[in-house]
Amino acid sequence: MKALINTSEGLIFKTVADPSPAPNQALVAVRAFSLNRGELALLAARTEGWRPGQDVAGVVVEAAADGSGPTPGTRVVALVEDSGWAELAAVPTARLAELPDEVEIEQAAALPLAGRTALNTIRLGGNLLGRKVLVTGATGGVGHYQVQLAVLSGADVTAVARSGADYGAAKAVPSITDAEGPYDLVAESSGGESLHHAIAKIAPGGTVVVLGTSSGAKAPIDVYDFIGHEGARLVNYMSYADPSPINRDLQTLSKLIAQQKLTTDLGFHADWTQIKVALDELRHRTFRGKAVLTIQ
Ligand SMILES: NC(=O)c1ccc[n+]([C@@H]2O[C@H](COP(=O)([O-])OP(=O)(O)OC[C@H]3O[C@@H](n4cnc5c(N)ncnc54)[C@H](OP(=O)(O)O)[C@@H]3O)[C@@H](O)[C@H]2O)c1
């Protein structure tokens, strides 16, 4: 099969052996995959022979030998640890979900890491009915799902989007400094000064979920920043340590897409031969939402 392999000169297409699935793994023909900001850092750090790719959608070609998971021919979405940017992927059945008919493969491929991160970071705010929520990085893969999921939860949502954007039920502001707090939940992924401002906007006892630093900057914070925001908590989220069952989260997200309660902003869509262009566009944030590449 053909696969994308990382090298010190960048990504290359290479013919490699088909995966040999473990008993708990289904063999999936990958039809589309999406990119995540974190993968830019992984590609820079893991050069020699690493096989990238976490978000995949496709069709089961071989069911798991232990009898778990779907049968051949089933359309699925999956979150794998790596090696997903390839024609075939061996996927633990606990990490995949069957797709409802209404969900297109490209929409599904956008969901795994960004959607699951959005789902579980918004859940960290508890019951959000009537609560105030602030989302930074709202034009991004994770952020645009966080905004929609917080609105769905009944919150009064403000989206921080440098470019300005239409967020339906949510208000949009160009900078976190323009956001009118206090907020019960802030989902913070921009890092640096943005985290500093997030604390300045949090209600006493509220929750700031610290999940990323898209700006690459460090946050200068100390105890005095919490005066007026007493009892507020900073909660870290790391998807790799999230105990929420992946198959169930992917089912939840796919169902919301099928019901048109959640939509994916597909800002970049091309054939997987365009991978280098897609990574450059992501690096420079020339599009909104998610980049999805399809395998013909
Ligand atoms: N902790 C976890 O488990 C987890 C999981 C997934 C992602 N993450 C992190 O969450 C963040 C968002 O991930 P993503 O995949 O959604 O990324 P993305 O699609 O590239 O979105 C990045 C967002 O951050 C905004 N942003 C603000 N300042 C920025 C800057 N200086 N440089 C680049 N972007 C900036 C962008 O706004 P513009 O559109 O205006 O550029 C965009 O809305 C990343 O830091 C990622 O590493 C963490």
From TrEMBL:
Residues 6-293 form the Enoyl reductase (ER) domain. It comes from the Bacteria. Keywords: NADP. GO terms for molecular function: oxidoreductase activity. SUPFAM superfamilies: GroES-like (SSF50129), NAD(P)-binding Rossmann-fold domains (SSF51735). This is NADPH:quinone reductase-like Zn-dependent oxidoreductase.
